[in-house]
Amino acid sequence: MTKVEDHREQTLTSVADTAGLSALISRAARAGKGLPPVERWNPDFCGDLDMEIRPDGTWFYLGTPIGRMPLVQLFSTVLRKDADGKTYLVTPVEKVGIRVVDAPFVAVEMNVSGKGNGQVITFRTNVGDVVEAGPEHPLRFVDEDDTGGLKPYVLVRGRLEALVARPVMYELVEHGEEIEIDGELMFAVRAGGEVYPIMPAEKLRRLSA
To answer: Is 73 helix (H, G, I), strand (E, B) or coil?
Structure first.
């Protein structure tokens, strides 16, 4: 069997280390040339990969944390979340499932400029994406029933979201204000010309009492 044939038979699910996985994805993603067009690729599903993204943004492969950020950044470029709610690594010829405990990305930094309807909120994720909250990158806020806490998310691309890290969340809510929405007074934040409700103003008062 020739080396060329060996190369052709390699698949995402057959490699046994991050180096091999990186080599395959690098060829598919054309590293260094911007994000690959994963939304336009329609390969066959080839099974699940033993890869998991934890809530803190740590990636695990074969049960071991991936410590090299360049590898994580590379893998993140071929992520896609489909309408079935599952997240995949996608190349032109393969689609493999991975596990995502919460969100695939974490928003670790934010910057705010302007005020009122002109307020601009920009987030940086743990893998280097920079997105400006607004119509193309909306915010949403989810109540944690078990803890009574709050989890904000910002859409990064496709259906992929970033969970806003807790320190960044505290900074974000500092820019909130009471705004009437559909007849109800809400505590909300303005970003990119949009208003994103966080919770009813009365609930915030009870929590702050």
So the answer is: helix
- 73 closest CA partner among 38, 103, 105, 51: 105
**CA dist list (Å): 42 to 11, 90, 153, 198:** 16, 8, 27, 37
The burial class, CB within 10 Å (0-12 / 13-18 / 19+), for 47 is exposed
Cα 138 from Cα 156, distance rounded (Å): 9
Task: Give the integer Cα–Cα distance in Å for 60 and 187.
Answer: 37
pTM of the predicted structure, to 2 decimals: 0.86
- Tell me: the pLDDT tens digits for 17-53? 777 677 777 766 554 467 889 999 999 999 999 999 9
Separation of alpha carbons 180 and 11, rounded Å: 54
- Helix (H) / strand (E) containing 20: helix 18-29
Q: Is the dihedral of CA 78, 10, 8, 27 positive or negative?
A: positive
Cβ-based neighbours of 22, under 8 Å, separated by 6 or more: 71, 74, 75
Three-point CA angle 144, 180, 205, nearest 5°: 50
Sheet of 95-100, strands arranged across: 64-65, 59-61, 45-53, 95-100, 87-90, 79-81
Residue 185 near residue 200, CB atoms below 8 Å: yes
HSE value, Cβ hemisphere, 13 Å, CA-based, for 183 = 0
